[in-house]
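Example is below:
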Amino acid sequence: MEKNSILSSNGGELQLPVGFRFRPTDEELILYYLKPKVHSLPLPAAFIPQIHEIFQSHPSNLPGDVKQRRYFFCRRKWDYSKTCRSRINYISDESGYWKEVGKEKAISVNVAPRTSFIVGIKKTFVLYEGKHTKTSWFLHEYRILPSQIPTASTTNCENWVAYRVNQRKRNGRAQKNVGEDGGVMEMSVENTIEFGCPPLASPLCSSNEEEA
């Protein structure tokens, strides 16, 4: 409770004071926010808003400060088991589209030398405007492993995914986007082995000094 004393509330959403940023690692986002959301369990804090659809909106029109990393929950609408082709998601006003880039990444937690546990999967999308003009907007999609989602007939689990949207700096220096997070291994998902995951220290927030 002492940690939460620095937080203020505005319309039910928690806000951090000036100088602090909500920047969980990929592992923390999956373990402490997405997985509890899927299992209808309490979250550490109400920092991640829930939206109906993310791909049909331009990122500048999404809630939050466009200069910062923004996180969202959205219900999963894609059947990952039926196809491996690249996903292209058009914005509703036809001003552009989100295109999947690169390989899926298995998000892992290192628990000992040469020992890690896979806890989720990340996909990355880039926004193209007009017909083929690549922008500096990136969207990262996080989902937990299918084996961690019991069938709806036996549980109250819901098909939630988490998203992180941010814009690269114009000089080409990324705000730590693709492949920057610790504990991320690039590999084909079908070649990974699924494991359980150990508990980690619960994250809260970070200051400006930690990341550029």
The radius of gyration is 17 Å.
